[in-house]
Amino acid sequence: MSENLTFTENVYKNFDRAIARLNLPRGLAEKIKVCNSMIQFSFPVRDGDGFRIVNAYRAEHSVHKRPTKGGIRYEVHVNADEVVALATLMTLKCAVVNVPFGGAKGGIRIDPRKESAEFIERATRRYTAELYYKNFIGPGVDVPAPDMGCGEREMAWIADTYATLAHHDVDHLACVTGKPVAQGGISGRKEATGRGVQFGIRELFRSADDVKGCGLSAGLGGKRVVVQGLGNVGYHAAKFLAEEDGCRIVGICERDGAIWNDAGLDVDAVRRHMDETNGGVKGFPGATYFEDGDKVLCGPCDILVPAALENQITEANADRIQARIIAEAANGPTTAAASERLFQRGVIVIPDLYLNAGGVTVSYFEWSKNLAHIRFGRLEKRLEEGRTHRLMQAIERLTDRRFGDDEFTNVARGADEIDRVRAGLDDTMRTSYAEIRTAQRRFPGIDLRTAAYIVAIDKVATSYMQLGVWP
Prior knowledge:
Elements: H1 7-19, H2 28-33, E1 37-47, E2 50-60, E3 68-74, H3 80-96, E4 102-108, H4 117-133, E5 142-146, H5 152-165, H6 192-204, H7 208-211, E6 224-228, H8 232-243, E7 248-254, E8 257-260, H9 267-276, E9 288-290, H10 294-297, E10 303-306, E11 325-327, H11 336-344, E12 348-350, H12 352-355, H13 358-372, H14 381-399, H15 405-412, H16 417-442, H17 448-466
Parallel strand pairs: 3-4, 3-5, 6-7, 6-10, 10-11, 11-12
Antiparallel strand pairs: 1-2, 2-4, 7-8, 8-9
Helix pairs in contact: 1-3, 1-17, 3-17, 4-5, 6-8, 6-13, 6-16, 13-16, 16-17
């Protein structure tokens, strides 16, 4: 059973379920499945008076489109299998949301929680140099991004190191995404994955027909949510879902246990508590604490948002999950066997392939901005503002109604970069979900995950055939 499978093998099992529904030319399915390139290397990093050897990885799963795209995981247990699995998911994820990248992923085997900023910087810069000399980084080659254990700071170091090495490349800022806005980043990238989770869940709940099978009503009002993992993705997903009218975050699971409050938890307050207690939820006031986080993971709720590591929902706990919808904010949180069991039980799983794609979507916007060398909205904002202002004045003349100053300010205001990013992400999540639902209706009896894989694989296969790589 899949509980004994590796992460990559679990991804392949989901892949094979989709392939069985498609009629692809001989050998093409295997070409799409396997990883194109994988490098594993070690390098010395100065640590105090001596040096320490750091192991690192980078996988480019598919080059049917260039550049390849995927984050870098800073994690002490990261390994080659994990990186290949995540790169495979990135290929399919980009295809699902119509982002023109191949899939990639990287990893540096360190524990960022225990290392000094100086050590992390040295490791990051050396990792970037290794990628550069191995031709595994560049605006048109392979574009990393943040993943677990890193963020804007590390991406800024990567961009600076690449610019130093590739001083001839005028597009050097496009070598990596997730940078600080002041260093070529884009507004809204930090929270993009969590925002995409919000938009994706909202899409499912727009239609009563889509959720009636699991016994829920349309709309997020009154829905109870449990979130596993309050890192960047989990925090923003929980925060944005809590802003939905009547939606309550009733449970939060973390490394040291879990907390529960049926009336709802203040996500920002929990995050502040974690910052003050070195990352733990134990002792948070006004909530019931459970040392065994599985009790909250399997607690009574409508929506479960696993936003931590892979393989958190398995055959061992699938039957105890009480949520009617599992929204996969993390990569691969549900094993293939558990996913099949949940489907049999009538539980809807919104797959990571789609729901986790907010980050790469906004990374695409950032990459495009870096190549264009111009901020989004710079050419149009005042033009839009002036046109809307004149339209409102015309309405005043025709209706004898006068808009207030606040109405003029709020309605006539031209779209900023953040407005365009959010609108683009919202549109991406809407259109992608519609494609997945179309595939699900085309093949009755399949779950959303298989439908998402079908959509993605079909697009990648079409790319290969149109390029003439496959007859």
